[in-house]
Amino acid sequence: MWKKFVTEYLTFSKKDRIGIFVLTGLIAITLLAPLVFPYLKKERNPDTAKTQETIKQLKVLFKDSANTPSHSYSRDIENATSEVHLFYFDPNVITIEQWQQLGVHKNVAATIKKYLSKGGIFRKPEDLKKIYTLPKEDAERLIPFVKIKHDGNTSIPVTKDYSLQPAVFKNETITKKHYEIIDINKADTSVFIKLPGIGSKLAQRIITFREKLGGFYSVEQVGETRFLPDSVFQKIKPFLELKVIDTKKMDINVAGINELQSHPYINYNVANAIVQFRNQNGTYKSLDDLKKIHIVDDMLFKKIQPYLVVK
Q1: CA–CA separation, 60 vs 63, rounded Å?
Q2: Which region among 6-10, 49-53, 63-67, 253-257 has the lowest average model confidence (pLDDT)?
Q3: How far apart are CA 99 and CA 110, in angstroms?
Q4: Cα 246 to Cα 210, 223, 306, distances in angstroms
Q5: What pLDDT score does 7 carry?
Q6: Tens of pLDDT, residues 177-217
Q7: What Å distances lie between residue 219 and 27, 86, 143, 185, 216, CA to CA?
Q8: Please, is 126 exposed, middle or buried when counting C-beta atoms within 10 Å of its C-beta (0-12, 13-18, 19+)?
């Protein structure tokens, strides 16, 4: 009787034994975890030598800009000067106010003055790029106007007042006699870079924008170049001309959506509307048919017309 009882109720298969072992293990882990866990945690010591050294380095790196907003300095309306005046200057001697006249944020100007007061010096125009708080676009814009009065080895007194410098450092009016008139559809980067306030990056952006458009049909279009400040465009505008208008044109009876929307003036919605109108009404008879599309208003039509054709 007992043998039968043991056989029926106290005998376990291999799977039963494995299940019992697993269940027992889980119960043991659950019970022991609260006791073992505190010993597994690594104590973090905020006062370690490595941490202190890192904090020290960060303080040195950011002490000059601790109270400076994170957005672009030269574009801060509250702190920037109302109008930018470009003139030839020596970065070793001009005042914070004169930096602001050049379009530099006052906090950046203060950082530059602190750099100079600690023995720093600008030996060549490109040294402006070493000021990490000065936006690269501002550095490129100002480099053509830098005139440093020293031989590259002699230190310059940083406390010297800018107003006492020779006339060569005073504000100079930019006139046409200083710069050549350029054809905006023919000039390459080496020509654009000769204009006041235009560095290599801005020159390349103008060329890239021209290529995407398919050529300029108006001098005003140069001012639409990305990241080209209007103040700089107004400076270079007198030296820009357009001798021949020869824009690259797309046939609206053939061009697809992808080709149309590759143009800077035509977004996907407009490109899709042009193609759908053609599919529904047949080929275009003239460019004026575009005016029948409700999202093509008069302003947009005038902008895109020089780049389209009906064949």
Answers
A1: 6
A2: 63-67
A3: 9
A4: 12, 19, 9
A5: 60
A6: 468 899 999 999 999 999 999 999 999 999 999 999 999 99
A7: 81, 21, 25, 10, 7
A8: exposed
Report which of residues 58 and 155 the model is more confident about. 58
**Number of residues written out for the chain:** 311
Percent of the chain with pLDDT over 70: 71
> What residues are paired with 146 via a beta bridge?
89
Residue 295: how many CA atoms within 13 Å on its side-chain side? 11
